[in-house]
Design a protein that fits this description.
Length: about 700
C-alpha cells in the first residue's frame, strides 16, 4: 500500500521577518506556517496587518491579535503556490503598565479606542484605581506632557497617540469603613465598620475575645483628627465598656483599638500562661497571635507615620523637656525583655507621634505618673483625663501607695514659665465624681505610706540549727534572728562567722572599679614605662593583671564578733538582704605569701607565728619580715606583737584555728606597679571567705 505525499509549493515571505526569502511548504500551509518557517516577526514588524499578495493583489490580511487574544483563526488562509506573505512595519504603539492584567506594548489600528486598548490589556486588576490614570505623551517639542484621565467611565475621553505610555495606578492601602484591633486580643486584625458601632460590638466577651494577660482597666482608641494625620486618643476600661454605656465609645472609620497587657516582661506573661495550663491547641493559637501581632504592629506604626526603626532609636535627645524631666534617659526597646503587648512597646510610637505633632498652637498631649504605681512613666493625655485615668494608665496603685495625699506638678505658661505643685487626695479623686482634670505636661507623684515597711529578709547558712530565709521587721537584730533559728550547732566555728551586706558589697564593687581604673591610667602614663623597665613586666602580664582584677567579685563582708553578739554585749541591726555564714570548726592554720612553701598546718596551741613560718620552709629573700600580719578567721587583721592596731588585749593576738599568716613582699625590691600587682595577687589568695561560703 502506497502512502500519498503532499505536494510542495514555493512561497515568498518578505518584509519584517527574521529570515525573509523563498520557502518550500506543503500545499496545506497557512499564513502562520509561513511565519513559523521564516523565524517569526522582528521587533519592528506589524502584528496587525500581515498581508497575503497573489498576482500583485492583496487577497487576505491577518491580525495576529485576533488569534492571540480571541483564538480567531478565520483569516489564517491556506496559501497557494507563488503567494507572497508580506509583513509591513509596525503601526501606532501604546504602552500600558501598572495594575492591568496584561501589561505590554500594544499596536493599535487607526480606529481603535481607549476601550479597545484596555480590552487588549486584559482589563484592570482588582486593586487598580483607573479614575486617575496617568498618560505620558511626546509633545513634539523635545518635551513630554502628562495627561490624567478617568478610565473607569464607559466613554473615555482619550484618543491614543503613537508613543503614549499609560500608567494605571493602584488604590490606596488605607482601609475604608474598617477599624483595627490589636494587642492582647484573641483575634487581632481589621474589621468592618458600620455607623453606630461601639467597643462592645468589636469586643463582645472578656472570656473569648481577649487574652488572659489583658489589662481590663487600660485600653486606648487611636483616632485621626485632621487631614494632616494628627491623632487623638480615647481611654477606656474593658469592663466599663461592656457593662456601662458611659465609656462604650462609638467607633469611627480607621480607628485603631489597642488592648494592653498587664505585664511588662515576657517572663511574667509566660508564667501566667503556664499557670493556666493551656492546651496544645491554645498554646499553638497563642503563637499564631504573636506572629500576627508583629504584622499588625508594623501596620500600626506605618499608620501613624513612623517606622519600627525610628521608634526603636528614640533616645533622650529626641524627647522633649517633659520626658527628660520625668523619665531621664529612655531605655532602648528590647523585644526580648518587654512583653509583646506591653505599655512600653505599644506606647513608644504613639508618644513619638504626639511629641512631633505638638506645636506653639497645640500643647503636647502627654502626662507623667511617678511614685507608688505599678508602671511609672509618660502616657498619652486624653480629653478630660482625670486622676483615675492616670492611675489606670500606670497599671494601678501599689500596696504601699498613700491615698490621703498625692501631688500634681504643673507647668504653667505665661509671660514666664512657672511650676505649680497641687496637693490631691486620691481617696476623693479616684471616685466616679472626679473633678480634677489633668493638663499637658502634668506630673502625678503618688507618695508611699509613711513608715511603710516592705518585707525584709535575711539568710542564715551553715552551722545553725534551722538555716534558711527569715522575714524580719525593721530594727530587728542578728541576736534575735539567731534565737529564732535555734542557735548554733555543736560544730559551729563562732569565731569564723562570715557576715555579708548588700550595701557594703556595693561600696566594695565601686572601690574595685576605681582600683582597676587607676591601674589602667598608670599603665598608660609615662611613669609606667619606667616601671616596665624596672620590673620587667611583659604586656601579657599587665593584660592578665587587668583582666584578673576585673573578675574579682565583691563579697561585702562585715567583720563581726559573733560571741559578743550572742552574749548581748554588741548589737547588730539587720538590713534587707543580709546573710550570715557559719562554717564548721577548723583545725588548721594557713601560711601564704613570700615563704618557700605556701601551705596549711594543723593547729597547735603551743606553736607561734615563727614556728609556722619555719614549718613552711622559712622566708624568701624578698620577704618583708617586719610587716608580717595575721588574718583572723572572722576577717579581722593584726600584726604579731603589736596589739595596738586591732585589739585592746593580748588575747586577740593569739593564733586560733582558721587563721591565715600572710608574708608580704618587701617594697624595696619593687616599684609601685609591682607592689600593686603583688597586693592584687594577695587579694586573690585571701578568698577565704568566698571559699568558706561555697563549701557550706
Amino acid at each position: 500500500m502506497f502512502k500519498r505525499r503532499l505536494r510542495s509549493m514555493r512561497i515568498l515571505v518578505l518584509g519584517e521577518a527574521y529570515k525573509p526569502g523563498a520557502y518550500s511548504v506543503t500545499s496545506l500551509a497557512s499564513i502562520t506556517h509561513a511565519l513559523f518557517v521564516s523565524g517569526g516577526i522582528t521587533e519592528i514588524g506589524s502584528l496587525r496587518n500581515i498581508q497575503v499578495k497573489r498576482q500583485g493583489k492583496v487577497v487576505a490580511t491577518l491580525d495576529l491579535y485576533d488569534l492571540l487574544t480571541k483564538g480567531d483563526s478565520s483569516n489564517d488562509i491556506v496559501l497557494q503556490s507563488g503567494d507572497v506573505v508580506f509583513i509591513p512595519p509596525v503601526g501606532k504603539q501604546v504602552t500600558v503598565s501598572g495594575l492591568v492584567k496584561r501589561p505590554a506594548i500594544f499596536e493599535l489600528t487607526q480606529n481603535e479606542t481607549a476601550q479597545d486598548l484596555i480590552r487588549l490589556a486584559g482589563g484592570f486588576k482588582a486593586e487598580a484605581f483607573p479614575q486617575k490614570t496617568v498618560i505620558e505623551r511626546y509633545a513634539g517639542n523635545s518635551f513630554k506632557t502628562v495627561l490624567t484621565r478617568d478610565f473607569s467611565q464607559k466613554e473615555i475621553s482619550y484618543k491614543p497617540y503613537d508613543g503614549d505610555v499609560i500608567k494605571v495606578q493602584g488604590s490606596s492601602e488605607e482601609l475604608e469603613n474598617a477599624v483595627t484591633i490589636m494587642g492582647a486580643v484573641s483575634h487581632p486584625g481589621n474589621y468592618q465598620w458600620q455607623k453606630g458601632d461601639r467597643i462592645s460590638d468589636l469586643i463582645t466577651s472578656l472570656k473569648s475575645d481577649v487574652l488572659p494577660i489583658a489589662d481590663f482597666d487600660y485600653s486606648l482608641i487611636v483616632r485621626e483628627k485632621s487631614i494632616r494625620g494628627d491623632i487623638e486618643l480615647l481611654q477606656f476600661s474593658l469592663v466599663d465598656a461592656l457593662e456601662s454605656q458611659v465609656t462604650n465609645y462609638e467607633l469611627m472609620p480607621r480607628d485603631t483599638v489597642i488592648i494592653f497587657s498587664r505585664f511588662e516582661e515576657k517572663a511574667e506573661e509566660k508564667r501566667l500562661l503556664s499557670d493556666l495550663a493551656l492546651s496544645e491547641k491554645e498554646i499553638s493559637h497563642q503563637a499564631k497571635v504573636e506572629q500576627w501581632q508583629k504584622f499588625e504592629n508594623r501596620k500600626f506604626l506605618e499608620f501613624i507615620g513612623e517606622s519600627v526603626e525610628e521608634a526603636r532609636e528614640v533616645d533622650s535627645k529626641q524627647l522633649d523637656s517633659l520626658t527628660k524631666l520625668l523619665t531621664g534617659q529612655k531605655d532602648e526597646l528590647d523585644e526580648d525583655e518587654y512583653s509583646v503587648f506591653s505599655r512600653k512597646k505599644l506606647l513608644a510610637p504613639i508618644i513619638l507621634k504626639l511629641q512631633k505633632q505638638a506645636s506653639i498652637f497645640e500643647d503636647v498631649a502627654l502626662f507623667a505618673v511617678n511614685g507608688r504605681v505599678r508602671y511609672p512613666g509618660v502616657y498619652p493625655l486624653v480629653s478630660k483625663a482625670s486622676i483615675k485615668h492616670a492611675i489606670n494608665a500606670a497599671g494601678g496603685l501599689l500596696e504601699s501607695a498613700y491615698l490621703q495625699s498625692a501631688e500634681v506638678t504643673r507647668i504653667t505658661k505665661g509671660d514666664n514659665v512657672s511650676i505649680e505643685h497641687i496637693a490631691v487626695n486620691l481617696t476623693e479623686t479616684m471616685g466616679q465624681t472626679d473633678s480634677f482634670i489633668l493638663q499637658s505636661k502634668d506630673s502625678l507623684n503618688v507618695f508611699p505610706t509613711p513608715n511603710w515597711s516592705e518585707e525584709y529578709k535575711v539568710n542564715l547558712y551553715g552551722e545553725v540549727r534551722f538555716p534558711g530565709t527569715y522575714s524580719i521587721k525593721r530594727g530587728e537584730t542578728l541576736e534575735n534572728v539567731l534565737e529564732r533559728a535555734g542557735g548554733l550547732t555543736d560544730f559551729a566555728a563562732e569565731n569564723g562567722a562570715i557576715f555579708t551586706r548588700a550595701s557594703i558589697r556595693t561600696k566594695e564593687r565601686a572601690q574595685l572599679q576605681k582600683l582597676s581604673d587607676d591601674l589602667r591610667r598608670e599603665i598608660a602614663s609615662k611613669s609606667f614605662s619606667n616601671s616596665v623597665t624596672d620590673a620587667s613586666l611583659s604586656y601579657d602580664d599587665m593584660d592578665k593583671l587587668l583582666k584578673d582584677l576585673g573578675q574579682v567579685q565583691a563579697l561585702g563582708r562585715l567583720v563581726i564578733d559573733l560571741p559578743k553578739i550572742q552574749s548581748g554585749s554588741v548589737s547588730l541591726e539587720l538590713e534587707n538582704g543580709d546573710a550570715l555564714y557559719i562554717p564548721a570548726k577548723q583545725n588548721t592554720v594557713s601560711v601564704i605569701g613570700e615563704v618557700n612553701v605556701s601551705t596549711s598546718h594543723l593547729y597547735n596551741d603551743n606553736l607561734s607565728v615563727d614556728d609556722y613560718l619555719e614549718y613552711s620552709g622559712g622566708l624568701k629573700q624578698r620577704a618583708d619580715e617586719e610587716r608580717i600580719y595575721v588574718i583572723k578567721a572572722n576577717g579581722s587583721v593584726y600584726i604579731p606583737n603589736d596589739s595596738s592596731w586591732f585589739a585592746v588585749n593580748e588575747s586577740k593576738n593569739r593564733l586560733e584555728p582558721g587563721d591565715t599568716i600572710v608574708v608580704p613582699l618587701d617594697a624595696e625590691y619593687m616599684n609601685q606597679l609591682t607592689l600593686w600587682s603583688t597586693a592584687t595577687q594577695i587579694v586573690y589568695q585571701l578568698g577565704l571567705a568566698a571559699a568558706a561560703i561555697s563549701a557550706l
